[in-house]
What we know:
Elements: H1 2-33, H2 38-48, H3 51-74, H4 85-125, H5 131-164
Amino acid sequence: MVFALRLIHIVLGAFWVGAIVFSAFFLMPAVRAAGPGGGGVMAQIMGRLHFHTYMLSAVWLTILSGLAMGYHNGGESGFRWFAIGVGRMFGLGGVLAIIAGILGGAVTAPAAQKLGALSAKVQASGAPPTPADKAELERLQSRLFNATRLVAVLVLLAVAAMAVARYSA
């Protein structure tokens, strides 16, 4: 059972970290630089490929498997396990990941879905975006860009904490 939890946690966690870091530092800046043309890329990724569904699934399965492993590793000591170095570092990584997951679900996912829908609407019209649509696109892009970067930093810090946990005193 622990083997399966660890496998799920590491594989889906790697997907989550890789996807969010790529999105935050490469994809989103490129989409922003492309202007209205970048909206088509986001519409494809979010609408047709359902990227957000894969991300949310990976995020919550990573978090749930991590919580289950934390419960297992605590054993008879329960929450006292988090008082020792290794438990503290795994706990810190877990808290950072949970905050990142909540931020992703509450801010980035809705902003990305709205951005994808509005981009698809503008693209389907065949006309340039109206001033109101353009302002909303820019607002959503900025919100998504900033929140995604924050999530990326949080998950990188979570990975760092978990990577060094075994060596904590």
